[in-house]
Specification:
This protein is 53% helix and 17% strand. By secondary structure, the protein is α+β, with helices and mostly antiparallel strands. The protein has three domains: 113 residues, PAS domain (Beta-Lactamase); 115 residues, Reverse transcriptase/Diguanylate cyclase domain (Alpha-Beta Plaits, 2-Layer Sandwich), CATH 3.30.70.270; 85 residues, PucR C-terminal helix-turn-helix domain (Arc Repressor Mutant, subunit A). Strand 7 and strand 8 form a beta hairpin.
Length: 365
Amino acid sequence: MKMLNQKIANSIVEETSIRLHRNVNIMNTEGVIIATRDTSRIGSFHEGALEVLQSGETRIISVKQESRGGTQPGVNLPIVFQEKIIGVIGITGDPSEMGDVGELVKMTTELMIRQEFVVSQMEWKQRTKEMIMEQLMKKEPSFTDIDRGLSLLRINFQQPFTTLVIQITERSITNQKLIQKLEETIGDENGIVAFINVNRLIIATSGLKGEEVKRKIESVYTVLKKQNVVFRIAYSLPFYKLEEFSQAYLDCDITLKIIEHEKEVISFAEIEAKALIYQVDDDITERFSYRVLGNLDENKASTLEAFFENDLNIQKVADDLYVHRNTFIYRLHKIIEETGYDPRKFRDALILQVALWIWRKSGER
């Protein structure tokens, strides 16, 4: 990357000229002025700059030299980046009145260039990570591009892999800061973090097993909470081939679609059976659901769901619903009468649960 381009040079001139109340010129490695407050001089050759480029040392032009040679008095200093001279900065004015201004401007200029370099490196790395994610999400990814990107980033992707998808509802933190904090949490050697759209982040973990993955997810959760982000996280089953990444992403995507909104973190493993009905033809599933449930109302559906969520424990579900045990039993008998299925029996409970999932799915559309 060319570190002294016109954009950076203009920023330097703007920052320094206003504070010094002096004209500042920036010259490139050919001695040509590329930025100055006197725009008529842009593109013209600066002899003093060429001398600095050749000698590598600061050149001072006094008021006496100005009168003899017709040049303007001032100080010209080399701009050094990574031990190489990448340009020259010139400050117009009587050198005897400047004191240490020249060195201070030189230091400020070099700091600005270093900062620009750091930012550009971060942007380049993030674009590369986004490219890798984009490829991994394809059904037929280019592993040549993926390997090249990983090599440039010096990341060694190792099995097993896990995919985390974070759906963000509200946040005040910027993309860059959020990614930085999550990368610090995951660890550069353990995965990649990237936005795939404004409100969706993907984290691909590498080489982490069982409890290690859970600990990382807990850490990610803590970071998001500390930053006051409103979010939901879905994470995939572990997989061992990068070709399976796109399916792992789809598993997370469907998890986010069908989980209750109050749940902030959930694994695809928890809803894998339920997810199957989202992959079957709607006409088939809805015909089954209507046959089992008929015109079941919301109150009876909620009663059944509470019964299943409490592992068919009558007392627990009565407590959860804030009703007397006998009241709940009465509701249960009404459901049995209406559907012909008894949710206290395993086979009937399974049929009713699947029918309920389909019923809820139909209501989402």
